[in-house]
């Protein structure tokens, strides 16, 4: 008995102040209602004197918030003027102003937050991340027919923050299999602190089943934000075109030509990593663009004089 009591006393003595939970909303929309970032801790009664609660933001070296019981809380740096300093997380005088209330969260206040609770003898810290996002202003999926036997499927998003993830998915008919379309090309630009992104892939009709549905999946990492746009597509000649669809012989010929020189013209059947970030897509697209020239030249030269159009087509498939 005596031993146990001793042990417990030692533990509270050694452990001291300890953060029991940090509660930060993982994602909030830009300009939304006030949010609370809370930091709960346990405190031994002998530690109450000398308690300091601080919040740090991103890599700012000085705290953006500090509270010492009995004193007024102070805001600082990027949080200056952005907090409701009257907010009370608790009526307990040693816990009262431990939390931040951000009155109007905005994108510049997204990032890592660290709560630090210190007493004369001990301290504890914990981190949490908050994303402040801007939903897409527009998000569309569209198609064009660069040639009679191909389709260019394009996902386009405008005015979103932070960098989104875009994925193109091919669905074979309403209840068919779904797979991520690989070897897509991505362009990203930014204006006014928000991103525009375009993702596309040129596919050959002969590799697509009737009633293909293309799905563009837009999401923001670390948030619940996710939205989908769909497009159905009938492979074959353009509907408005009076010409009959290309017959099978022609298809076969082209297929042989391209397979023979490129060797990789079929749609890959495996599924890409489900949520590749734009960063990695951009960089892999870049690398692949660098590769394409030499490869397509090699491929082209290993073929036997096939004219500009075939060359371009090979280029497209090898590009990514
Ligand atoms: C977030 O909203 C604020 C206004 O509340 C605005 O000034 C800012 O530009 C917005 N951020 C982005 C990235 O659009
Ligand atoms: C496919 O569409 C994208 C986006 O609209 C465009 O940038 C690209 O040039 C198009 N490619 C072809 C071969 O039509
Ligand atoms: C066929 C093709 O897409 N060629 C491009 C390959 O990448 C280079 C850049 O390294 C471009 O200049 C080519 O147009």
TrEMBL record:
The keyword Translocase does not apply. The keyword RNA-binding does not apply. InterPro entries: Ig-like_dom_sf (IPR036179), Ig-like_fold (IPR013783). Keywords: Signal. Residues 266-303 have a biased composition (Polar residues). Residues 1-16 form the signal peptide. This is Ig-like domain-containing protein. The lineage of its organism: Eukaryota, Metazoa, Ecdysozoa, Arthropoda, Crustacea.
């Amino acid at each position: 008995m005596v031993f146990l009591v001793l042990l417990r006393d030692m533990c509270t003595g050694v452990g001291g102040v300890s953060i029991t939970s940090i509660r930060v909303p993982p994602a909030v929309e830009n300009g939304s209602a006030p949010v609370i970032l809370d930091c709960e801790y346990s405190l031994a009664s002998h530690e109450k004197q000398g308690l300091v609660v601080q919040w740090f933001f991103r890599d700012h070296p000085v705290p953006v918030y500090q509270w010492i019981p009995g004193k007024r809380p102070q805001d600082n740096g990027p949080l200056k003027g952005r907090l409701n300093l009257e907010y009370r997380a608790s009526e307990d005088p040693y816990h009262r102003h431990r939390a931040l209330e951000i009155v109007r969260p905005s994108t510049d206040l997204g990032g890592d937050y660290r709560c630090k609770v210190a007493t004369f003898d001990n301290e504890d810290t914990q981190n949490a991340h908050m994303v402040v996002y801007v939903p897409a202003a527009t998000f569309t999926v569209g198609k064009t027919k660069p040639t009679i036997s191909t389709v260019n499927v394009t996902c386009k998003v405008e005015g979103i923050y932070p960098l989104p993830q875009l994925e193109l998915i091919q669905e074979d008919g309403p209840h068919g299999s779904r797979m991520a379309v690989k070897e897509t090309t991505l362009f990203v630009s930014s204006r006014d602190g928000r991103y525009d992104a375009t993702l596309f892939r040129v596919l050959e009709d002969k590799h697509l089943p009737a009633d293909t549905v293309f799905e563009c999946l837009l999401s923001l990492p670390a948030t619940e934000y996710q939205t989908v746009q769909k497009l159905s597509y009938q492979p074959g000649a353009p509907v408005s075109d009076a010409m009959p669809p290309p017959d099978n012989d022609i298809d076969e010929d082209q297929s042989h030509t391209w397979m023979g020189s490129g060797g990789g013209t079929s749609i890959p059947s495996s599924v890409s990593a489900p949520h590749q970030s734009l960063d990695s897509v951009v960089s892999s697209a870049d690398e692949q663009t660098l590769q394409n020239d030499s490869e397509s030249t090699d491929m082209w030269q290993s073929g036997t004089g096939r004219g500009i159009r075939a060359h371009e087509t090979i280029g497209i498939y090898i590009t990514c």
